[in-house]
Every structure is written in C-alpha cells, then in structure tokens.
Amino acid sequence: MTEPQIKEALIALLDGIKRADAQAIVSETARLDDIVQRGRLGLPPQLVHFLERRSYAKALQYLEGSTAVPSGNCRRPLTGGAS
Fold first, then answer.
1. Is residue 73 part of a domain?
2. What does the pLDDT average to over 55-82?
3. Which three-class secondary structure string do you get for the chain?
4. What's the predicted TM-score (pTM) here?
C-alpha cells in the first residue's frame, strides 16, 4: 500500500467514526493494521508511530503535510521500522 491508500483508509475511518458506523471502523482499522504490518519498512517512521498508536488524526495531518501535528505524551522514541 502507498501513502495515498493510507490516506484514503484514514479518511474512511475518521468518517466512519463520525457516523458511528461500526462496520466501517472495524474494516478500516483492520486495513490500516495490515498496512503497518506489511509495509512498515517502506513507510516514514513518524507515520508508523502514529498508526501503531492509533493516532489517526495525527497520521492524516502528517500525510497532508501539516507542520503543526501536535505532540503527544507517549514519550516513546520513534523506532524507525523495528518493534
């Protein structure tokens, strides 16, 4: 999967959350988990970090090129592709 496909899944997931559509939430969450599982080495470490921690709004901001992605409080270093 590519970053545009991740962005598409994030938009669908966040829309599903807004509509309280359980099926969309389950489906898109599984899709994103699969992307991270299969493609983590080809993805930017910060994007992987956001996706692994289910910071989906931050992941979308990152993909949209926002320079104002808010810092979280997880205090965990980026892994750079290894768990």
1. no
2. 73
3. CCHHHHHHHHHHHHHHHHHCCHHHHHHHHHHHHHHHHHHHHHCCHHHHHHHHCCCHHHHHHHHCCCCCCCCCCCCCCCCCCCC
4. 0.78
